[in-house]
TrEMBL record:
NCBIfam families: intramemb_PrsW. It is a multi-pass membrane protein. It is found in: Cell membrane. One of its GO terms (molecular function) is peptidase activity. Involved in the degradation of specific anti-sigma factors. InterPro entries: Peptidase_PrsW_arch/bac, PrsW. This is Protease PrsW.
């Protein structure tokens, strides 16, 4: 494969998934420059994560459970969550529950895209292996982002249960990401038969969350009233 072909195949899944979730926003699509900004922040996040994970491995060892839930999922999802919370959570453009999904997915897919590019070049990947990564690791990051963003959106607009949803927005992506990684590390010969049902469940739950977040949009009511008036 040529250099351009490898790069395109590695980048395309992340960009396609981001476009998919971006266009799922029914009522008020987010400013594209903010979405691109969060995607780039996700790319930049790869470098500190690599350094910190190496340090954590030296300190904590490589026990599959510790590696999956703390070194991999815990560190990655916490830094993604922190980035979204600090940069965009209080931003004026975050004005409906679905926006949390858009921005969390943008960060997650920025991270997954560079990770995929690095993997492709270090392992001289074929189209088949990159297709596998598109279906599993890259889409997995997107779905963990949906879970995170859905609960961040609920936290932003449900003041009564804000702390609970903020906790869910961090804990649930760590759980699902950790479960996925642990499965890959421990199910040696039959991991694919476990990973595919897990991804199917995550996709179904994510589509439900996408629809649910859109249904809770305050802009849905406003637009409905405008249509009635016209």
């Amino acid at each position: 494969m040529s250099l351009l072909s490898v790069l395109t195949a590695a980048v395309a899944p992340g960009v396609a998934l981001l476009a998919y979730f971006y266009l799922k926003d029914r009522y008020d699509t987010e400013p594209i420059h903010l979405v691109v900004k969060m995607f780039i922040f996700g790319i930049l996040l790869v470098f500190p994560v690599m350094v910190l994970q190496r340090a954590f491995v030296h300190g904590l060892g490589e026990d599959p459970f510790v590696f999956s839930f703390i070194i991999s999922a815990g560190l990655e999802e916490f830094l993604k969550w922190f980035l979204v919370y600090v940069v965009i959570y209080q931003h004026a453009s975050f004005d409906e529950p679905y926006d949390g999904i858009v921005y969390a997915v943008a960060v997650s897919l920025g991270f997954a895209t560079l990770e995929n590019v690095i993997y492709a070049f270090l392992n001289a990947s074929s189209i088949t292996s990159l297709l596998y990564r598109a279906l599993l690791p890259v889409s997995g990051h997107a779905l963990f982002g949906v879970i995170m963003g859905y609960h961040l959106g609920k936290a932003k607009f449900d003041r009564v249960h804000k702390k609970r949803y903020l906790l869910y927005s961090l804990a649930l992506p760590i759980f699902w990401h950790g479960a996925y990684d642990y499965l890959l590390l421990t199910a040696e010969t039959y991991w694919l038969w476990c990973a595919l049902p897990l991804m199917a469940v995550l996709w179904m739950r994510s589509i439900w969350k996408v629809n649910r977040a859109n249904a809770k949009s305050p802009l849905r009511v406003i637009q409905g009233e405008e249509q009635v008036k016209t």
